[in-house]
Amino acid sequence: EVQLVESGGGLVQPGRSLRLSCAASGFTLGNYAMHWVRQAPGKGLEWVSGINWNSGSIGYADSVKGRFTISRDNAKNSLYLQTSSLKTEDTALYYCAKEVGTTAGGRLEYWGQGTLVTVSS
Amino acid sequence: QSALTQPPSASGSPGQSVTISCTGASSDVGNYNYVSWYQQHPGKAPKLMIYEVSKRPSGVPDRFSGSKSGNTASLTVSGLQAEDEADYYCNSYAGSNTVVFGGGTKLTVL
Fold first, then answer.
1. How far is B105 from chain A (nearest CA, A)?
2. Residues forming a β-bridge with B89
3. What's the mean per-residue pLDDT of chain A?
4. CA proximity to A95, closest of A40, A53, A54
């Protein structure tokens, strides 16, 4: 059974950093692209970042470019999102999602339950 | 990276069909066959219903179907059931390793 478990969220002050993690199980992480998607309270889904199977292709939403960094460790079955210079508008539930295939085309087949990031002073 | 455009709401009676549109641009929906649709019930994670315009993942009822014409993709739900009431989101690959979502449509089963 495919499982994605996010962690690392919490309450953080504006300008600070957080590292989000996603532990994958039930499949071979190295065979799939992965994504981070967020959802602000009461709002819609927003794609944040995606990474292909071997980290050779990476993309970011304009809203986080230069502040967030996605990475993966296939040997550890883990996906990461390093966030920095956090803003109040980054407050959201952050989901980790598994792509259908090796390339990050946005076909998000499995989702975790999310980790909540709250940016507030 | 402009969000795809979806109607805020849609509705239909049990047994009827409803179609939700998702309008993008020639740089995303119109240029790639990587359009997906997701169903999200309150407090739950999204669920993939359609990918690559019209493909259904295993376990998704064939009452759900997808199509695309030009810069607009559509999700049709036939034989509406009470459990179909949820928020629906589309997304598309937008080139340069980026993805864009629509604003979401709240589907009400009357």
1. 9
2. B38
3. 96
4. A40
Tell me, letter by letter, the H, E, C secondary structure of chain A: CCEEEEECCEEECCCCCEEEEEEEECCCHHHCCEEEEEECCCCCEEEEEEECCCCCCEEECCCCCCCEEEEEEHHHCEEEEEECCCCHHHCEEEEEEEECCCCCCCCEEEECCCEEEEECC
On chain A, the residues whose CB falls within 8 A of the CB of B99 are 35, 47, 50, 59, 104-106
For A104, which of B38, B92, B97 is closest by C-beta distance? B97
Q: Name the strand (E) or helix (H) holding B74.
A: strand B72-77
pLDDT tens digits along A4-24: 999 999 999 999 999 999 999
Which 3 state secondary structure label does DSSP give B97?
coil
For residue B82, the SS3 value is helix
Query: In A, which residues are within 8 Å of B93 by CB distance?
Result: 105-106
Two structure tokens written together for A20: 């989000």
Q: Which pair of tokens denotes residue B109?
A: 């089963």
Token reading at A14: 């504006």
